[in-house]
Amino acid sequence: MTASRPPLHVRLSARLRRASLDRALADGTDPATSPELEWRARQLASPGTYRELAERLEEVVDEAGEPHPNAVVQIDREAVRCAREDLLTLAAQLAIADRANARGVALVRRLLTEGLSPLYVPSSPERLERFVRQARAALGT
Fold first, then answer.
1. Which end of the chain has fewer CB atoms surrounding its CB within 10 Å, N or C?
2. How far is CA 16 from CA 10, 12, 19, 43, in A?
C-alpha cells in the first residue's frame, strides 16, 4: 500500500474490525498481509496516538492510588501499584516517541482497552509487569 489513503472500503473495514486488527498486530502479524492491517498499523503509528496512550497509562497509575468508585471497570490496583515504575517508564517512552512499532502500540492499546487484560483482571502482579515489559520491548523506540 502506498503512503496515500486506501480506498473507502478498506478504511471502513479497518474501522469496523479495529479490535481484531489490534489483536493481530499485537500478536505480531505482519501489517503487509492485508490492506486493513496496513492501514490500522499506520493509524497506530502516530505521535498523537502515542501521547494519548501515555496519558491514559499515567491516569491508570493515579487511579491505583485513588480508586474511582464510579468507574465502570475497576483496575487491579495492587498489580498497578507493583508495576508502577514499569507503567510510568512505558508512558514516558510513548510520550517522547516520534516513531514506534505498531505491534508495541497495539499491545498498549490492548492493555488499556481489553477487559481481560492484566490491568483489569486480578491475578499476580507479575503478569502485568511481564505484559508491560513485553510492550516496552515491542515498541522499538
1. C
2. 10, 6, 8, 14
Quickly tell me which residue has 496516538 as its cell.
Answer: 49
Report which DSSP code applies to 64: H
Digit-coded pLDDT (tens) for 84-141: 999 999 999 999 888 888 999 999 999 999 989 999 998 888 999 999 999 999 987 5
Of 61, 41, 60, the residue nearest 140 (C-alpha) = 41
Quickly tell me which residue has 489483536 as its cell: 23
* Terminal Cα distance for the chain, rounded: 24
pTM of the entire predicted model: 0.86
Name the residue ranges covered by the structural domains of the chain.
Answer: 46-139
